């Protein structure tokens, strides 16, 4: 191969410029772009003018698009749930501000944070309630749905019951997930009410729940940190153990046996409080802590070993009410709607807590038995049994802090609340729907 061949770049068309006899002929002339010719100077000026107008129009359109919001959806149109879900799936990857931004778009509001201006509807929140199929949780869910929030219940149904939340199935604002909080969970939410934990001695002695309190709380705190949600822990008056101070103030550190049969619950909740404060201080998670005192009401688990449900179920079945010890130990009894109000005020308020949430009205077990007799059966019998280990002698909340900082105090007395619970228990035990025996009409 000769060097001339190496440098040959010509194509077939170039070879066409050689005549058959090998003689060179000139290349055809190349067509170049040239401005159109105008018949007159006026026509040329008009064409230039048109071109300038087109360019000006394009510039104005570009400017307008860059100033308008990045959505083609008019702000008054609702964001669909499907859109919320798909955006949520993306947002799980990390940005906690997604929901606020979406909601603000929905509300046509411009800035993140701050108070909702007067006249505008309250921001609709996405709220997780762990243990939401249980006694307290299900009443909380009712209130949150009633307020217009989207609620996700996470529950493993250990002590909870689907029936407690059945009435919300089919409501697009409600979701139910069977899940054990001991396993991690990813959800995009604004608030987490963490209730998951069996609250009755029968259950937590049967299945020690330290892991639920520790690992479950860690998982939910991790979720709160990841998505920037506010986290509320439902702790308990049991953190005071068998208190040496009466009534119990939040600053009291308690008197707890670390190795007793109740320790899995008492120490579990104390650790959960510690973890909650660690995430608050160390990871700036917004947290709230409620220390709940004995609460009663409809949907309580029947026969769960808690004193009010025990007495009511026994009196309804014409069995003797079992009083442990001499019956002089005291407790305070709070109706569930009062507690739910307190929990929601705490979540919405500015204070971390801990806050005692309970009814300061103090009753001995024998006084409670008397109220149950008056409500159900004057002839209901009482039977004394040996007291259980580590049963606290006295329990009464000091709720000064909740009164001052949350503007909260219980409204429903035991004599008003108990008939509401009795009515519910009667229906569940006997399937009794007879209005004449229905005492739920008692005004609360
Ligand atoms: N009711 C009271 O008097 C009282 C007093 C003090 C504190 N508390 C606290 O309030 C919360 C609710 O109590 P409650 O009376 O409604 O009890 P509950 O037993 O009726 O409800 C607890 C709910 O948590 C669920 N749960 C338990 N372990 C779980 C797990 N590992 N994963 C997912 N779900 C789980 C149960 O199935 C149930 O639905 C508890 O944290 C409890 O410690 C209640």
UniProtKB/TrEMBL annotation:
Pfam name, any one: GDP_Man_Dehyd
Gene Ontology cellular component terms for the protein in this record: Golgi cisterna membrane
The keyword Transmembrane appears for this protein: yes
Main location: Golgi
Lineage: superkingdom: Eukaryota
The name this protein goes by in its record: UDP-glucuronate decarboxylase
Membrane topology, record value: Single-pass type II membrane protein
EC id: 4.1.1.35
Location(s), subcellular: Golgi apparatus, Golgi stack membrane
Cofactors: NAD(+)
InterPro entries with a match to the protein in the record: NAD(P)-bd_dom, NAD(P)-bd_dom_sf, UXS-like
Keyword Isomerase: no
Assigned protein family: Belongs to the NAD(P)-dependent epimerase/dehydratase family. UDP-glucuronic acid decarboxylase subfamily.
Enzyme class: lyase
One Gene Ontology term from the biological process aspect of the record: D-xylose metabolic process
Gene Ontology molecular function: any one: NAD+ binding
Known role: Catalyzes the NAD-dependent decarboxylation of UDP-glucuronic acid to UDP-xylose. Necessary for the biosynthesis of the core tetrasaccharide in glycosaminoglycan biosynthesis.
Biased composition (Basic and acidic residues): 11-20
Region annotated Disordered, chain positions: 1-28
Record keywords, A-Z: Decarboxylase, Golgi apparatus, Lyase, Membrane, NAD, Transmembrane, Transmembrane helix
Biological or metabolic pathway of the protein: Nucleotide-sugar biosynthesis; UDP-alpha-D-xylose biosynthesis; UDP-alpha-D-xylose from UDP-alpha-D-glucuronate: step 1/1
Domain named NAD(P)-binding: residues: 129-419
